TrEMBL record:
Coiled coil: none
Keywords assigned by UniProt, alphabetized: Cell cycle, Cell division, Cell shape, Cell wall biogenesis/degradation, Cytoplasm, FAD, Flavoprotein, NADP, Oxidoreductase, Peptidoglycan synthesis
Pathway annotation from the record: Cell wall biogenesis; peptidoglycan biosynthesis
Source organism per UniProt: Gracilimonas mengyeensis
Protein name: UDP-N-acetylenolpyruvoylglucosamine reductase
Length: 345
C-alpha cells in the first residue's frame, strides 16, 4: 500500500458532509491522485466492502453509520488542454472545489459557468448530478470526463452523449451507479461569452442594479447575492441545498391543478410543466417549521436544515413527512435531489 495515504477506521463523517451529520464510516480513505485510486482498487478492503464515493459532501444524507468504505476523492489540479481564439478546454481534478473553479474562470474571462456560482460541492460530483441553476446546467459547458472503473482500475473517457445527462441526472446515477469514480472533468468555455440572463430572478436583479449589458462577473456576483439572500450557508447551518427536485408533470395534470390552485407557478418544458418544489412545500405549511434540530429553512422551503444535533434519520423522517403531505394535497411525488445513504433509506 502506498505510504502517502492510509485507511482510517470508525471515522466521524460530520466534517465531510454539509448537513453536518455525525455518521461514522467503518473505513475511510482520502485519495489525492488517480494512481492512488488505481492502486487502492486492488486492496482487500476496497474489494470486500460496500463503498460510497464522496466528493464535497454537499449532496448526501447519511441516515445512519456506514458499515463499509467511504472513499473521499480529493484529486486536485487545473489544466488548459486546448485553446483557440474563442474557446478554452479546461480540465479540472475531481477534488477541486466547484465554486472556486467558477471564480477562477470568471477571473480569466472564460464564460459558461458563471450562473453556477456558489453551488457547493466538488468538480467530480458536478456531472453526476448535472448541477444547474439560474438558467444554466453543467451539460451546457461539458466536454468530457475521465472515470476509473471500480473493478478493473482502467480509465474511461465519457463524452457528453455517453453521460446521458438529464434533469439533475446522469448515467452515474442510473446504470453506471457505483461502477466508476470520476477523476477529472473537462469544460468547454467561451472567451467571448454569451451572457445567459433568461432566468427571471437573475434578469430582474441585474436590472435593479442598473446593469443592462452584464459581464460574466456581473452575472456571477448577482447570482452569489441572490443565493446568499435565499439559501443558508452550510458553514453556519447544516444543509444540502435543494433537498428535492422540481417535479415535472404532464400538461393535462397541470391543467387540472391549475383549476384547483390558480396561482400555481410553473415553467414550460418539453414533457409538460415543471413545478417549483419550494412552492408545493410552502403551500403545505412547512416553511420555517422545526422539530428538535431538524427543520425547514425559514427563507427557502426547499432546504431542510440541521440546527446542530439532528440525526440523519430525523432529517429523513422530516423529508418523508413533507413528501407525504405534498402527495396528499397535490398528487405530486417529490423525488429527493440528495443521495440518501443508509439501511433504512
Amino acid at each position: 500500500m502506498n505510504s502517502d495515504f492510509q485507511i482510517r477506521e470508525h471515522v466521524d463523517l460530520s466534517p465531510y458532509n454539509t448537513m453536518g451529520l455525525a455518521a461514522k464510516a467503518r473505513y475511510f480513505i482520502s485519495l489525492k491522485s488517480v494512481d492512488q485510486l488505481k492502486e487502492f482498487i486492488a486492496d482487500k478492503i476496497w474489494q470486500e466492502n460496500q463503498r460510497w464515493i464522496l466528493g464535497g459532501g454537499s449532496n448526501v444524507l447519511f441516515i445512519d453509520d456506514f458499515d463499509g468504505l467511504v472513499v473521499h476523492v480529493d484529486i486536485p489540479g487545473k489544466e488548459v488542454v486546448q485553446e483557440s481564439d474563442d474557446l478554452v478546454l479546461l480540465k479540472a481534478g475531481a477534488g477541486e472545489n466547484w465554486h472556486e473553479l467558477v471564480m477562477f474562470c470568471v477571473d480569466k474571462g472564460w464564460g459558461g459557468i458563471e450562473n453556477l456560482s456558489l453551488i457547493p460541492g466538488s468538480v467530480g460530483a458536478a456531472p453526476i448530478q448535472n448541477i444547474g441553476a439560474y438558467g444554466t446546467e453543467l451539460v451546457d459547458v461539458f466536454h468530457v470526463l475521465e472515470a476509473v472503473n471500480v473493478e478493473t482500475g482502467e480509465i474511461h473517457t465519457f463524452t457528453k452523449n455517453e453521460c446521458k445527462f438529464g434533469y439533475r441526472d446522469s448515467i452515474f446515477k442510473q446504470e453506471a451507479r457505483g461502477k466508476y469514480v470520476v477523476v477529472s472533468v473537462t469544460l468547454r468555455l467561451q472567451k467571448d461569452p454569451q451572457i445567459n440572463t433568461v432566468y427571471k430572478a437573475l434578469s430582474e436583479a441585474l436590472e435593479s442594479k442598473g446593469i443592462s449589458t452584464p459581464t460574466i462577473k456581473d452575472v456571477s456576483d448577482t447570482v452569489i447575492e441572490i443565493r446568499r439572500s435565499k439559501l443558508p450557508d452550510p458553514a453556519e447551518i447544516g444543509n444540502t441545498g435543494s433537498f428535492f427536485k422540481n417535479p415535472v408533470i404532464s400538461e393535462s395534470i397541470f391543467d387540472e391543478l391549475k383549476e384547483r390552485f390558480p396561482d400555481i407557478p410553473h415553467y414550460s418544458v418539453e414533457s409538460g410543466a415543471k413545478i417549483p418544489a419550494a412552492w408545493l412545500i410552502d403551500q403545505c405549511g412547512w416553511k420555517g417549521k422545526r422539530f428538535g434540530d431538524a427543520g425547514v429553512h425559514k427563507m427557502q422551503a426547499l432546504v431542510i436544515v440541521n440546527y446542530g444535533e439532528a440525526t440523519g434519520s430525523e432529517i429523513w423522517s422530516l423529508a418523508q413527512r413533507i413528501q407525504a403531505s405534498v402527495e396528499d394535497k397535490f398528487g405530486i411525488s417529490l423525488v429527493p435531489e440528495v443521495n440518501v445513504v443508509g439501511k433504512t433509506a
